[in-house]
Amino acid sequence: MIIALIIMGAPALLFSEETSGSEMPNTPLAGLKTVQEIKNKFSCNLQLAVEFLNYTETDMELTPAQHSKSDSMNIVSHINAVYKTNHLRIGINSTLPIVIGQGEEKWTRYQDNFTFQKDKLNYYWERIDTYLGYSFGKIAENTFYAGIRASEGIQRRTDFISFGVPITGTSTEKIYSTGQIYGYSGERAITPFFSVNWGAELCLPINSRVTNSGMPGIVFKNKNRNAYTTKVKTGVTYKKNDKISFSFEIYGGKMIWEGSKVKTIRTYDPLGDYDTYYKWPRNETNYTGISFGLRYSF
């Protein structure tokens, strides 16, 4: 059973600087510079997030057709380092798991909704984005960006129960993928200390490589086959001073991956040759997250 997890983390471009009251007097934006007035600088944003994953796998080419469902929760860190000029943004965004969640996976036949297999599933999932963006606007900062993502997922399944019979063993699956990301983020100050932010992102996979210990020697290599990942986010930032800010953010999205084509392996045997069929099923992942962050600018 194979799942591709390409779940993206959007860049956190949160910043504000004080100006004299004469520049923007008696307005909620007083004390904040416009995008055009920002000096070249670096910022690093560290976020801790709780991420909830709900996903299904579907294989209509098997006989009988079947699908699985599972829920899981991970605690992850988001680290975003950004170099800024008045309009340019160059950044690296990484997501690293801290606590790997475990959920129960159930496989069910479509024809009669009979659950014939259960197992415990947990996985390690990290991704790294590099991106280049352009920012503009005075009252609100608007940033459009594009970049490349590298992702690795390691899933382990244990405690199998098939047709009511416990089965010992572990199945380890590894998913390596690259993708192209396109995104937009915005931020607007509502007081000299608080600002709100929002954003949206699309990831289109370039290729992937999937292996599974339960299928020795089998490698699935796939290019973009009707696959995509979306993400939306919103949040609020509190500025303590010119260097330190705190943030709260919620986000969510969906991942669709159509899986692989059927791979046929011919086995030559003295008693008779035979074919074995392997496939990476269709994946659909719905995810939501809540994060708390600390940003330091210098």
Order of helices and strands: EEEEEEEEEEEEEEE
Structural class comes to: mainly beta
**Assembly state (oligomeric):** single chain
Q: Please outline the major beta sheet.
A: 13 strands, antiparallel
* Overall body shape: elongated
Please estimate the helix content.
Answer: under 10%
Number of helices: 0
Name of the CATH first level: Mainly Beta
Distance between the termini: 47 Å
How many individual domains? 1
* CATH topology name: Lipocalin
How many strands in all? 15
CATH superfamily: OMPT-like
Average pLDDT confidence is 83
Strand content: over 45%
CATH architecture: Beta Barrel
Structure write-up:
- The chain is mainly β and 298 residues long.
- The protein has one domain (35-297): Lipocalin (Beta Barrel).
- The chain has strands at residues 41-59, 66-84, 88-99, 102-109, 115-136, 140-162, 165-167, 171-189, 194-212, 219-223, 228-239, 244-257, 263-267, 274-278, 282-297.
- The strands form 2 sheets. Strands 1, 2, 3, 4, 5, 6, 7, 8, 9, 10, 11, 12 and 15 form a 13-stranded antiparallel β-sheet that branches. A two-stranded antiparallel ribbon has the order 13-14.
- A hairpin with a 2-residue loop joins β6 and β7.
- Residues 1-36 have low confidence and may be disordered.
